[in-house]
Design a protein that fits this description.
By secondary structure, the chain is an all-alpha fold. It contains 13 helices and two strands. This is Carbohydrate ABC transporter permease.
């Protein structure tokens, strides 16, 4: 009796899981690899045309002279930068910009946090919170042009602000807030604070509402006072939001132009001259496009320093 030959058993091929291609079949072709770049191409084109090309042109202009007539344009090296950095008007604009953005940022944070905590408290009912939210957010709803016109009328020597101060006996006669070099910078800083704090308030209110209530309950059980709970619970939890908003506000405020130009135009006597208005006047009032390009590059570098800290903070977060 002969033994039957037994053929070796082979394991059946397992089917690939659903949604996954079989091995050797998921190799993307070069055309498929280019598909994502095809979707991104309109955005990349807009960024290149509207941002990269103008920046490269301005940087190129900053190293040349007589850029209006390209045939007579000559390489000037760092002469335009030296002229800008030694200009007394530029130094005054740099000082005014530093005061303007630092005071505005600190006031935005303080007012935004104060109003956010007021709207987040349990002492106010739902209707009261809704009313206060509408009132507090109103300055953010106006455009810069409307804000400039309103406050120019309010701060006029015969305007409402002087009328109230005279009624209270704080001043004897109308003060020209925007025409006096001693008060013009602080007046536009106040207007910028008034128009910008609602954004901080909304952002910080969202951060406050995201803090777990268990942290406050644990701190209260440990006997922490309201001040200690604010310092040890609220501020540490809001630290990422506060730092991010502060850096963003420094960048935005340093680029403020419309409000200053429509309220004072950089005057009187350069009392409210900012880097933005200084660069604009060089380019479109004095037609010194090469020098204006150098000033614009300096402003760009200062802004990039702030942007670097913002990006690093966001990555750490």
């Amino acid at each position: 009796m002969t033994s039957a030959q037994v053929e070796p058993m082979t394991a059946p091929e397992s089917a690939p899981p659903p949604g996954r291609a079989a091995p050797g079949r998921n190799r993307s072709t070069p055309a498929r690899r280019l598909v994502p770049y095809g979707y991104l191409s309109p955005t990349i084109l807009l960024v290149v045309v509207l941002m990269v090309v103008p920046i490269v042109m301005v940087v190129g202009y900053s190293f040349r002279d007589n850029v209006i007539i390209q045939e007579n344009s000559v390489f000037a090296g760092f002469a335009n930068y030296a002229e800008v950095l030694t200009d007394l008007d530029f130094l005054a604009a740099l000082k005014n910009t530093a005061i303007f953005i630092s005071v505005s940022t600190v006031a935005h944070l303080v007012l935004g946090l104060a109003f956010a905590m007021m709207l987040n408290t349990r002492l106010l009912g739902g209707v009261a919170k809704a009313v206060f939210r509408i009132v507090y957010i109103l300055p953010w709803l106006f455009t810069i042009a409307v804000i400039a016109v309103i406050w120019r009328l309010l701060l006029d020597p015969s305007g409402v602000v002087n009328y109230i101060l005279q009624t209270l006996g704080l001043v004897q006669e109308g003060v020209n807030w925007l025409g006096d070099p001693a008060t013009a910078l602080w007046a536009i800083t106040f207007v910028n604070i008034w128009s910008g704090y609602p954004f901080f308030m909304i952002s910080l209110l969202a951060g406050l509402q995201g803090i777990p209530g268990d942290l406050y309950e644990a701190a209260a059980v440990d006997g922490a006072s309201p001040l200690r709970r604010f310092l040890n619970v609220t501020l540490p939890q809001l630290r990422p939001v506060i730092i991010g908003m502060a850096v963003l506000d420094l960048i935005w405020t340093s680029q403020q132009f419309a409000l200053i130009w429509m309220m004072t135009g950089g005057g009187p006597l350069n009392a409210t001259e900012m880097l933005s208005t200084y660069t604009y006047k060089l380019g479109f009032s004095e037609y010194e496009f090469a020098t204006a390009s150098a000033a614009a590059v300096i402003v760009l570098l200062l802004t990039m320093v702030l942007a670097f800290f913002y990006v690093r903070q966001q990555r750490e977060r």
